[in-house]
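Data availability excerpt. The first of two example chains:
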Amino acid sequence: MKRLICLLMCVFMFASVLPACAKTPEGQTHSSGIFTCNGFLYNVLEQTTKEYFLQTQPDFVSVNSTGDYIATGDIATDAAGNEYVVVIYGDLNCDGKIEAVDYMLSKRFVLDTVQLSAAAQEAAKSGDAKSAVDYMRIKRHVLKTFDLSTVPHRILTADNNGEKIAYIPLDNRPVNKDRVQYLAAAAGFELLIPEEDLYRTALDNMTPNKNGTTYGDREALLAWLKSVESTCDYYVISLDQMFSGGLVGSRWLSNTDLSLETEIADYLIDLAKRKHVVYFDTVMRLASTVGYQGYDINDYNALRSYASIARKQLSGSSLTVSNIVSGYRYGTNGQTLRVNVSSSKLNQYLASRERKLRLIDYLLKNASEDIERLYVGVDDSSPQITIQTNEINYIRSIAPENFSLFAGADELGLMGIAAVTAVCYGQANCQVTYFGEGKDYAADSFDIETLSANVEKHLTSIGATVESTDPNALQVLVLTQSSSLSSNASKLVAQMKKNLDAGIPTCVVDASNNWGVLPQAMLAADCNLARLMGYSHWNTVGNAIGIGTSTAVARYLYLYHSESVTKSSNEAFLKSLTFSLVKDISYRWKGISSLTDSSTYGPATIVAKLNSSDIQIGRGKFVSHNNIRLSNFRYPWNRTFEATFDITV
C-alpha cells in the first residue's frame, strides 16, 4: 500500500522533473544495450544494484537510488552532467523488482483504471502505446514462464531465429496450412505442425483419414502436443480442431458424452499456465456443411434460413448456456420455428450447437486469466439478431480480457503467429490510411462493425498500433467501398508505388468488395511489387484484413527488430507474398486453372512482376532474388475455393 501511494505521488513529481532531465540528444546506445532517449534510460534490468550499474556503465557517474536496487523513476547522471529517468520494463511500482503488484498495475493501466507516473508508464510499454501484450509478458514473468530480460525495451532488437511455435491448424485448407507455414518461416520461426492426416478433413467425395474418421484425430493431436512441450514455449492452437477434429467436424459432432473433450480441455487449461498459448475458436455458423455426412444444398439453405430468424435475447442472470439452448427452437415471441429438414437432422444440428457452446464454456470458466490470447471468429456472421447472438453475448460475458471477436475465421491462425511475433519482438508501429469514403461503414454483409473498427481491432489484437508517428512505421493502405472506386484505387496505388520505391514498409488490404479494380491498377503500376509486406483480398473483408495485416506485421517486426535476417526467411517471405497475390487475385477471383496463364490477372503475370522486383531484408536493405516458379496446381478439397500450388524460389 505504501508503494502504491508513493506511485500515485510520482504522477505529480515527475511532471516537474522530466523537462529538466530531457536535455540530451535522442537515441544513444551505451554499454550492455542501455539506451537513452527523450530523457529516459531504458533496458536496465530488475534487481540491478547501484554498484553493479556504475561498474558496467562507464558513461554514467551516479544514480540517486536509495533502495536495494535501482528502480523505475531513479535519476542516473552521465559524465557530461546529463540526467536520465531510469525505466525498468515491468517495474511499475518503482522498487526495482517485478512482482505481482506490477502486473496488476499493468492490467489497470491497459484498462485506464489507474494513473501512473511518466516513468512507470514507460515501464509498462515496449512500444509507443500501451498494449495487453505487455501486460501478458509482465504477468508471465512473475509466474516464471517468461523472461522480460529477453525483450529489449525501446531499442527492440532481438534474435528469435529458430524459436519454435507449435501449431494446431483449424483444418488442412491452404489458408490454415500453407499460408501459416510460409508466414512463420518468413518471421524466422520454426513451425512445429503435426502430420497432415491428424488434422485433415475429408468431405463425402474424399478418402477418410488413416484412423477411419473424416475429421482430425483428437487423441493423436493431444499426444503430439504433449510430445513437443519440452522443446517449445509458444503455441497457436485451434480449439475446433482439438475438440472436434476441425471446423467442419465442429458443425457436425453432437455427442453428449464429453469425456474425451474434457480431458483435452483440462490439458489445454494446464498448458496455458506453463506456456505462452494463443487459442482460437469459432461460433458455429448458421448452416451445415454441404457435401459432409450426407448434407446437401437443400439442407444448407433450410438450416441457414432457420438459424437466421431472431431468437429472444437474453441478458444478465438469464444469459446462461441452458437458457440459450432452450431457446434454439423458438422465435422472439416464443413461437416454435419450422424448418424443412428431417427431425433427425434438425436435432443433430441443434445438438452440435449446444455441444460447441458447452465446450468453450468449460474451457473459459476453468482457464480464467491464464490464456494469453483468445480469438473467436463468428463463422458466417451477420449484423442481424440470429441463433448466434445469444451465444456470442455469452462468450463475451465469460471471456478473458485479452479476448477478441471477429466476423470471420480463416484469418485466425495467421493472427496467432503475428501475435507471437509481437511478443518476441515488441509492438508493431503502424499507420493506417483509407482510400474512399467507406471506412465508417460495414464493409460487407458479414461485418458486425465499421471497417475502421474492424481494422483497428485486428491490428491491436496482434500487438500493433493504428496511428504511429514512427518514421519507420508499417503503412497499411486500405481501399474501401467508394462511389469513385477507380479514382481511389489509383490514389492508393500511387501511394503504394511511392512507398515501395522509397523503401517504406507497406501493406495493402482490398476492402472494396470489387475483385478487379485494385488488382488491375497494382499490376499495371511500374513499382517494386515484391517489397510489399503483405496483401489480401481473400474471401470476406474480415478475412482480408486479418490475413493482410498479420502477414505484414509479422514480417515487419522481424525485419525491423531482429538482429539477423536469414536467407530461408527471405525465401519464405517470397512464397508468402506470391501465394497471397496469386491466390487472392488469380484463383479466388478469376478461377484460373493454369499456372502459366499470362492474362491480366494470370499467375504468370503476377510472378513476372515479382521477379522483376527486389525484396526488403532489413531497415533500408534490399536484395534481388532468384526466379519464383509455380508448379503442381491442385485442389486438396476437390473445390476451387481451396486451390493450392507449390512455390519454388
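And the second chain:
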Amino acid sequence: MSYQVIARKYRPQTFDDVVGQRVVTETLKNAIQTDRVAHGYIFSGARGVGKTTTARILAKALNCAKGPTIAPDGTCASCLEIAAGNSVDVQEIDAASNRGIDEIRELREAVRYLPARDRYKIFIIDEAHMLTTEAFNALLKTLEEPPPRSLFIMATTEAHKLPSTIQSRCQHFAFRLLDYSEIYDRLRAVIAEEKVEADEGAISTLAQAAEGSVRDALSLLDQVIAACGGRLDEKRVRQVLGVVPTELLADMMKAVNAADSRRVLEMAGQLAAEGYELAHFCGELTRFVRDLMIGRSCGAESSLLQVPSEQRKQIAELAARFSEEDLSRFFNVLLRAEGEMRYALAPRFHLELALVKMVQARRLASLETFLSGLGGAGISATNSSSPRANPGSPVPAAPAAPRQIRSENLERPIANREPEARRPQPEGPRAGGVQSPAVRGTATAAAAAPTPASDDPRWSAIKGKVYAKSNFLGSCLEHVARCQIAEGEVSVEFAQKDSFFAEMVKSREQHAALRAASEEVLGQPVRIYVRLGEQETGTRAERPNARERAERDQTVEAFRRKFDGTLLDVKDLSRE
C-alpha cells in the first residue's frame, strides 16, 4: 500500500511544527543552543500529544549534518533515516513488548560503543512505564553515568509508575492536552492542504471528539474523509463518529426544563433502540450541561465555550432557562452517573435514574433554607412579645446552631413581667436628690438578678446575631449557665468546668463581637461582663438536663411537627 495516513503524513518534523507544547520545545531549543543537553529525558503526557514526535525531532536536531541545530534540514541522510525509523544510531524500543531484563542488558551492551556515524547514540524508549522492576534496576547505573555521546529519552503515559530513582536521574517534561481551539486550527490547516471542504460544525465535532489529542483528531479526520469524500458536513460527521446530535441534547434539556419525566425516559429508550452507546451519550450530555453552565456564568461569547459560533446563540437561550444552582446539580448528577455506568451491568437504568433526578432536582429546596425557616418560625413568636421589641425593628430570631440542636426555654410569659420603670427602687442615701453611683449600681443589680441563660429571649436573640457572624463565638456562648441583662450591661456567667469557654469570650476579638451583637439587639451601648460561677458542691446545678431543654426547644418542636416525628434520644454536646 502506498497510501500514508494523515496522522503520519502531517507528523511534525521540526520544533516549530509541534502544536501546543511551546514550553517543552522552547526549553529543548535553548538547551541545544547553549550546549546544555542532558543525558536523560522523560516525556510524559496523554496519548497523541507529541511525546515520541518531539523525541525524534530532538534526535534529528542533535545528529543533523548541519547540527547540532534547532532547525534540522530534514534532507540529510541522518534526518531521513530518523524520520523513517531505521537509523543505526537512533534506536526506538517498544517497552511494552521488550520489557524484561534481557532486553535492557542488550541495551547496556550497545550503549558502550560509540555512534557509527552520527554525533550521538540515542535510545528512545516508548511506553517506558511497562518495564519491569528488574529492568529499571539494570538501567539505573547506565542512566546515572552514561558513556559519552549517548542520550536516553523515555516516553510514557503514566509517569507515576516510573521509579523515583529513574526520575531523579532525568529531566522530566510533562506534555499537556491541547485546547479545543488549537486542535480546531490544526484540523482546518490539514483540511485545506488535503483540498477537502468542511463546514465549521464538522471541524468542531472532530475537535471535540479528539479530547485533546492531535493524533486522534487527524485519525478521525482520515476516517470521515473516507466516509464522506471531499465534502464534510456536521450531520454526516456525527453519524460516522457516533456522536450524539446537538439537537437531541438540546431537546433533552428542554424536557428537563419542562419537568417532563415521560419525555426524558422515552428519549433514553429511543437512544438505546437506535444503537447509541449510553455511556457515551451520558458523557456528551455532561459536556453539554457544562457548556450551559459556562454560558450562564460567563456568557455565550466566552472563550471557555468549545462550540462553533452558530451554536452559541442556542447555548445562551437554553442556559437562560436554568439557574446556576440548577446546572451545578445537573452536572453533579451526570458526573456520578457517568462514573457508575462504566462498570454497570445495566447502564440504561443508571442513565434513566440520572435523567429523572435532573427532572426532580429543580423542586428541591436547600437544607439551609429549610433550617433557617424553621428557626425563624420557632422564635419569632416569642420575640414579638419582648418588652424591648420595637414595632419598627423586631428582634431577630436566633438560628439553629450548626450540626447540633440546643434547647432554648422560651415558655416563660414575658408579658407578665413588671416593667423596669415600675419596679420598686431600693432606698439609699441621695445627694441633692440624685442617687449615688454606688446605690444606683446596687439597684440595677437587684432589678435584674441572674437568670438561667435559656430563660431570656433577649439572650437568645443576641446569640442569633452572634451565630450570623461567628459560629465559633456562638458555640462558646452555648456554655453560658446564667445571664443578666440590665440597663447598659450584659453579664454572662460560666460554670467552673467551662472556664475555657469563658477565657475565649474574654479575648479582645470575641469580646468586641459579643458587645456589637448585644448593642444591635438591645438598641443601646452596653458593657459586657464575663465571670465564672462558684464551684459546685454536692447538689447538681439548676440548669435543666439535655432532654428537658430539647423538649422545650422551638426549633426541635418545629421539626417534630413538620416531619411528624418523635424525640427518641438526646445527646448533650456541652458535656463532651
